[in-house]
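Quarterly update, task 2.4: calcium ion-bound model.
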Amino acid sequence: MRNKFLLSALFVVAGMHLASSAGAQVAISEILYHPVEKEVFDTNGAPVLDISDDVHEFLELHNAGAAPVNLAGWRLSGGIAFDFPTGTTIPAGGFVVVAKNPARLAAIPQYGLNTNQIFGPYSGQLGNEGDTVRLRDTADNLIDSVSYSPAFPWAIGADALGAGDDWTGLNSFDYQYRGRSLERVSFSHPANDPANWLASPLATGPTPGRANSVQLAIPRPVIIAFSVVQASDGTAIIRSNQLARIDVTFSATNQLANVSVEYFIDDINQTNEARTTLALTPMAAPSDGRYTGTLPGWLQAFAHVQPVSVTITTVRALTQGGPIYHTLWQSLAWTVGILALFMSLTIRQYRKV
Ligand SMILES: [Ca+2]
Ligand SMILES: [Ca+2]
């Protein structure tokens, strides 16, 4: 017989201090690498649209500077390739979109794109398992570069809808040819920081050719790595009555202060379990982003069950419901007035019959 318990942990970060800094010029601002592409057939059973190769992919550029920029001779490379033609200008504060298939993108009514904003087609594809995109100017200087991923610590909700309909409770056809894009939060913050990219909200969808849904000078911090080990010897197996050490690494650390972990042991048959909050300690300067704490012997209630292993790999599975993760994250952010980050650990307890 095997029982399964969940230990869920809420990371709460207070002490938000926004700062402003000068924006860069032209930057990669939005990436729709995995549009929802559901097969639709006509009455004869023939596909109404060739949706192979993710034809509704796009990449967006933004000019965050105060002057127009001539993009003629600039190029995209990496997973996709495109050379901007003569006469391509991006106005100050403006956006241009480079499409896998410009006609298909222009046909999506929710986007309301003007054809003079859409460039392409590009060759290649924005990989659904992660990819790199680079923007270079006429002198081949690297202007911007992003290596995104559909997996933690990147916003997993931007992988189409983040999970299948049976998990999200959504109907993919409601998001046909769109889904959720990666939207950049700050143009003065490094492009390659996962904290700088959020999945576009379900309700509004991707925003090709216009401002992204969330814009901050400094992105909210996210966890980019964590581990839970037995405190006494650092091993992954945590036995009953043993303290556990949790180590967490954040990025976008400018706003970090008063980091704590909130946890509860979740019997899958109950809700509203009592929660415990534990302050985490900076391992170095707060800007370093690494925090640690020792969880008490929270397995004592199950002391008769051992050994216990912490299965870190399930964290991704539990958080793959993009909307669920996002809703929780947002509700905490707004109601408590602080930043909150969520992660879950599954603790499997094995009991001999
Ligand atoms: Ca793709
Ligand atoms: Ca946009």
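Highlight for this quarter: Residues 20 and 93 are 17 Å apart (CA to CA).
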